[in-house]
């Protein structure tokens, strides 16, 4: 749900405070209220953080709800459910007063979005093109509604996608050899 009719700059967004605990993203300069997370979405994101940690990804490289500036027709700021940061990006974020990845910073290595009901276009269309423009090497769309996990891998300037369902084992160029199936992710463990 778009909140403002006037377009905001990145600076205006970063200082915006409506006095509530609601969470917003900036979409093409428009302030957009984010829906509350469902229990399954929260559980999926937490499961993946724990799983990635067990695979040897250090805690400083795993982040939830860190904002990332992306380009589109106007600036947008997204807050993915989970990101795996590069070592270089971890260093750049040290000491930051707000957990945001600016356009002049390197992109995260992996972004995970868990689809919310009635928000499918955001994850499958808009964020796909924004994350591609940002040069993110791997983007996972975990869809508990459609019961599938889509892994988009950056190959020669475009995303190539592979859809996983049921007991299919997920393949990740970023994570290497993982023993993770679509159904296990979609159940949140």
What does this entry look like structurally?
- This protein has helices at 10-15, 39-54, 87-93, 120-133, 182-186; strands at residues 24-27, 30-33, 62-63, 67-70, 76-78, 82-84, 100-101, 110-114, 138-143, 148-155, 158-164.
- The protein has 189 residues and is of the alpha+beta class.
- It has a single domain (37-186), classed as tt1808, chain A (Alpha-Beta Complex), CATH 3.90.1570.10.
- The strands form 3 sheets. It has a 6-stranded mixed sheet with strand order 3-6-8-9-10-11, sandwiched between helices. It has a 3-stranded mixed sheet with strand order 5-4-7, covered by helices on one side.
- A hairpin with a 5-residue loop joins β4 (67-70) and β5.
- The longest helix is centred in the first third of the chain and has 16 residues, at 39-54.
- It is globular and about 45 Å long.
Features:
189 residues; alpha+beta; tt1808, chain A; three-stranded mixed β-sheet; 5 helices
Quick synopsis:
With 189 residues, this protein is of the alpha+beta class. Helix content is 25%, strand content 25%.
């Amino acid at each position: 749900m778009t909140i403002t009719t006037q377009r905001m700059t990145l600076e205006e967004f970063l200082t915006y405070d409506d006095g509530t605990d609601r969470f917003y993203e900036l979409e093409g300069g428009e302030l957009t209220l984010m829906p509350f997370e469902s229990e399954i979405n929260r559980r999926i994101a937490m499961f993946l953080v724990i799983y990635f940690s067990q695979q040897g990804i250090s805690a400083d490289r795993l982040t939830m709800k860190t904002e990332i500036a992306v380009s589109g027709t106007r600036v947008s700021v997204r807050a993915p459910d989970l990101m795996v940061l590069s070592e270089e990006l971890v260093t750049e974020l040290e000491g930051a007063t707000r957990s945001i990845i600016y356009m002049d910073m390197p992109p995260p290595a992996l972004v995970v979005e868990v689809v919310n009901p009635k928000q499918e276009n955001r994850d499958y269309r808009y964020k796909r093109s924004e994350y591609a423009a940002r040069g993110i090497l791997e983007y996972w769309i975990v869809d508990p509604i459609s019961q599938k996990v889509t892994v988009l891998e950056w190959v020669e300037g475009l995303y190539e996608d592979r859809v996983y369902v049921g007991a299919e084992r997920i393949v990740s160029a970023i994570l290497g050899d993982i023993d993770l199936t679509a159904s296990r992710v979609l159940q949140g463990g």
